Batch of 4 targets.
Target 1
Amino acid sequence: MRAILLGILSSAFFSATFIINRIMNVSGTSWAWTASFRFLFALPILFFIVLFRKNLRPLWVEMRKNPLAWIGYGTIAGVGFYSLLSYAAVFSPAWLVAGTWQITILAGLLLSPLFFITLETKSEVKRVRGKMPLRSLLVALFILTGVICMQLTEAGDITVSQFLSGFLPVVIAAFLYPFGNRKMMEVVAGRLDTFQRVLGMAIGSLPVSIILAIYGWTTTGIPTSGQMMQGFLLALCSGVIATMTFFFATDLAKNNLSLLGAVEATQAGTMVFTVLGEIVFLNGSWPVGLSLIGMIIIMIGMIANSILNRSVPVSKLKKTA
């Protein structure tokens, strides 16, 4: 249950991604700057957190063991997925990007056969290939029904080009995020805590973040102080708080694919929190009709996930070797 609640909390902070992205796009900030800001500003915050906890040395040891994995999977689940979201936000409204992002609910479940979990029996401990948990898959499909309902009301107001430019990059990002996160969990195998892992992945994303910053500078110049403050808030809410909370939740559930899928499904809350954020900060209108029905379906699905997986004794799950 704790993992589910943390997942919902992370979705609330992750909704800042779509709200602040929209604000930054309106102010003329390049999508490349937006993507790089999330990691360049988050990096020193994460560094001082890990330094304060006196955990830098173990992270350094792990990164030296397998630097290519940290750069590769760190980039995939870091600036790689986020640059696609930032790019999509240029062409499509926040509701479409946030709604399409919910495909990550299914992506995490569909990726399950690519990973192994540890099972402990009376006679042995063995690693077996994961299977798609049917119960979580059905709940995910139910939640996606709500997402579709929320988008149908607005779908007629955008062009095919806007739809494809805002849809395809987000679909790719929806698979990159859980894939990179799970691969990093396999690499560290429980030897690092969430703070260390998030910092390591931010460091791994650094080369591409710098490249994106250079591209943003050549296309739109140096951001204004206001745009940089927006970038800092984006990094704090989405890059630090949301990421650490979500990764901590997935760490709790990593040896139970049903619970892990349920945690990843909590990101559907991002759609709801984005709508609420637009109402509060951007003078958006309250959803009505199908949009309201869709929001209710999403909330019911998230509650169902919590109930179906609350009996999982996370503390007794054996850590992956």
Target 2
Amino acid sequence: MALARGRFEDLAWVTGWDVAFADLYLDALTLHRASPDAVAGPWRLAFGAAPGLPPEAHVLLGMNAHINYDLPQSLIAVIPSEDFASPSLLDRRRRDHERIDDVLASRIAEEDVALQRVGGRRTPLDRLLAPVNRRASRAFLRESRRKVWANTYALHAARLEGPAAYAVRVSDLEAASAERVADLLRPGPVLVRLAVHGFGVTL
């Protein structure tokens, strides 16, 4: 819907990026169904999470894999090496990347309602903290996307060194994203904790 409303500077590029980003999830899901042990660590932990976890936990595990692990790789897929030599072009890409924050922020309340409908637990304290949690979600989404952009630069630098160096950095990204899972599942007000300490990972 945001694409149709013309909220981005380069509609064609964002459309191609959206496809590349979605394909990483679909590829991970297909591989998981065929060979669960072969899928990358963050997705293995998300797909293999205990069914009894609250819906919010499953969402955070999927977000961790798709944002922290997949998103920098999708940006590398649609920003070729030569584009990094053009500061003006990269600024356009960065601005469109940041505009996703506004799209996500506009959906937080709606997604919260959807989680409640599928069994999200809401204690009286949860209901009291709902406005705080929504602000916290906006904060950690912005923070994670800034780190994604920095990680894209790190992956690009490795790409210039060659396939072996790039594979090492992707492996580092996989490990860092998988390590985030323990904190995401730790008891307590996770959304507030993420807003304070961060959701993203750094290469």
Target 3
Amino acid sequence: MVKQIENTPELQQYTVFSIGEQLCALLIEEVVEIIRVHPITEVPGVKDFISGMINLRGSIIPVIDLRKRFRMNVPPFHKKTRIIIIHNQGENIGLIVDGVTMVTYVERKNVEPPLEMFNTLEKDCFKGFAKINEQFIGILNLEKVLFPYDEEV
């Protein structure tokens, strides 16, 4: 029998995924499900990082491409590309990622805040960085990723 570990203030479980060469993570509680890429319907007049919307079992879900959100080159989708469905402010939202790599636990003491030298986009979008197996994993701040400061205002 496998012992289930509960999330505690000192130990939290994350879904880890890749965006380009960067590993990122979301708290497991923020993730509803992970799906293969569905046909995406473009919506004119929305922010450039919003790819459009998908129909998931009768529900219309907006989809954000995290590569576009972080101003990265956007290659064609491949067999490992996934959409992570998250729940935020009462609605489901899809996040396009290059691949989901693992689910893991991280001790809070192993999470460092973003460096001061990062620009505002980088600092605001990450709660911190965890070092796991000699790799740095950026823990995303969903609020700032989904609702970025509008530079044009």
Target 4
Amino acid sequence: MYTSSIQKNILAELNHELAQTRKTIERVPFERADYKPHPKSMSLWQLATHVVNLLAFKTLFVTHDSRDFLDPNAPKPGPTPTSLDELLARFDEYSATLRQALSESDDEKLTHNFKLHRGEHVVFDYPKGTAIRIMGLNHSIHHRGQLTVYLRMLDIPVPGLYGPSADEK
């Protein structure tokens, strides 16, 4: 159902994308963690971990007003997971935290700006709702798409994300 609430629309989109992302991550073969389709590419495990860690970053957009990449005291994700079970547990934990933060927010709070910067260099300064959409959802969807290419190249069936995939027909 359509709603004019920014918060409810973002939460609905987030819930849909989280379900699709989890389906993709479930298929990542840990035994192929070092796989890279190109020397400049992230490894399969780096990419899968990045997709999961972006969830914590999205939570920052909701709960804070800025993030300085040069701040040594800024929150950072935990150590790299050493199994698919650990990665999925982190995904579930970060997803729940993000959902809760968004549920506790409201439209007015989502219009406040979030500034991402590296010292004096401003990467972006957007309303929180926009930051969540652009650097949160869109960024994650981009990397999830890369992850599906890795799966295809490893001959692992790709899940359908917006309808059936070629592997599900």
